Amino acid sequence: MTIGILDYGMGNLRSVARAVERVGGLGAGEIVAEPAEATRFDALIVPGVGAFGACMRNLAAAGLDTTVREFVANDRPVLGVCLGLQVLYEAGDESPNQPGLGLLDGRVAKLPAGVKVPHMGWNEVTWTADHPLTRNIPSGTRMYFVHSYAAETGPDTVGTTEYGTKFSAAIARGRLFATQFHPEKSGDAGLALYESFVKEAEAS
């Protein structure tokens, strides 16, 4: 079982890799930058720190946007983290002229006026639907967020939180799962989510 962590020139690669290795064994998470190499993995993680537009341009320049779409189309496990959730949508307010991956309908909006941005800190996440990756994590568990934009709740939402407004803290469609929070910064609960993803990859 191997998990590819996409390197598109942005993102919290090392901390994600360490978290995956901690729950799945040494070498479970490997950083990969080439589409041809990425296809050999059982599952993919799309990490994210940075801007929507730059992320999409870098993914496209490397050909990794196609890789993510193909994994999802073939129902292979994919986990998006923070910006890796946002780029799954059609578009985002941060870069209005840059299309997203278009795997989920809708757009990612800026957090509302009246709250401090970026949103940095711990917020309770309420699970709104059952999912294998969250069954070992109680609803109301606090997860760590760092972001200024968020996806509205919709049919793919499986977890929500509130910061000025209610938004999607986690989404799922088939074997695609993504979080607005950072599991690798969320202590034991975040590691539990990574561990469940590793088990999901093993079953693929």
Describe this structure in words.
There is one protein chain. With 204 residues, the chain is an alpha/beta fold. It has a single domain (3-202), classed as Rossmann fold (3-Layer(aba) Sandwich). The protein has six helices and twelve strands. A hairpin with a 2-residue loop joins strand 11 (166-173) and strand 12.
Strand content: 25-35%
Ends: how far apart? 9 Å
Oligomer: single chain
- Morphology: globular
Mean pLDDT: 93
What is the name of the CATH superfamily?
Answer: Class I glutamine amidotransferase (GATase) domain
In total, how many domains does the architecture comprise? 1
Residues in helix, % = 25-40%
Structural class of the helix and strand makeup?
Answer: alpha/beta
Alpha plus pi helix count: 6
Q: What does the secondary structure layout of this molecule look like, with pairings?
A:
Blueprint: E1 3-6, H1 13-24, E2 29-32, H2 35-38, E3 43-46, H3 52-62, H4 64-73, E4 78-81, H5 83-86, E5 89-92, E6 104-110, E7 119-127, E8 141-147, E9 149-151, E10 157-162, E11 166-173, E12 176-179, H6 187-202
Parallel strand pairs: 1-2, 1-3, 3-4, 4-12, 5-6
Antiparallel strand pairs: 6-9, 7-8, 7-10, 10-11, 11-12
Helix pairs in contact: 1-6
